[in-house]
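Ligand: adenosine-5'-triphosphate. Inputs:
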Amino acid sequence: MNDPAVAVEDLRKYYGQTKAVDGISFIVRKGEVFTLLGPNGAGKTTTLEILEGLRKADAGRVTVLGRSLEHNDKTQKARIGVMLQETTLFPHLTVKETLELFASFYPRSLDVQKLLEEVGLIEKSRSMVKHLSGGQRQRLAFALAMVNDPELIFLDEPTTGLDPQARRHVWHLIERLKGRGKTIFLTTHYMEEAERLSDRVCIMDHGKIIAEGTPSELIRRLGSGGLVECRASLSEDDRRLVLSMFGERVILAEERFALKTDNLVETLRRVMDLSREREIHLESIVVRQPNLEDVFLALTGRELRD
Ligand code: ATP
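Predicted complex:
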């Protein structure tokens, strides 16, 4: 196998009592989209910032593009692109000036005009940064992460706060980068984003990796059948009853429960009987395929998003 783009072994970072990163290990292969998926506070940003050389780990071994972090010199930095969760830009520079400034930091850079076209900001190239919308700022930050034509690009929650259309635009950009053979290291708490873009996903929670695999591998762990998802506020007694009736087949959340099923009619019948007998008001019943959100819920008992 080729050398991995990133190799992490037993990485740790504690802030006092908070175990932000608690002994994680993983490998990112060259040319793949690798995603750390987890809720707020799971430790994704801390992990990413250690790999980017912005934070110091307490313990563990890390290599990025074949070199350990102690050798994170200028040459190494030129091979990496970084989009932080929040990017502070100069408000009075234009979009084009901002890109040209960042391009000047590197020995080699992409054509600024082409980059503006690629991220859909050509019409804004003379606008001052302070006049950009949230989505446009995000695309500029994305362009800045690409300006040095890096081999490996770290994207920390690149679509948080974007509307669905702007989010899709960023997805297309990520897919195009992958098409050019770049390695993408993504963090997100949007499961549909992880599912759509990732070759491999590590699900992180409380500083630990709780599952790892391709999105379809992770989803297959829930079984081969579909899910019957019921929205209902259950009393404690009813929750216990649902658990005893459906055992391992139930994924229980606050305001809903999902039942893994290979026999739809039979499962629906049992749900209806339960609802009638216990007078449970079912707000909705949806039959669907399981997704990464269900995987997270099944593993932690919590929703991925707050
Ligand atoms: P989010 O999606 O909200 O960005 P995350 O998964 O990226 O979350 P981190 O930002 O890595 O999570 O934070 C992990 C834990 O470490 C959190 O409990 C956070 O409060 C804590 N933490 C992060 N940075 C610091 C710091 N500089 N000092 C103290 N605690 C910190």
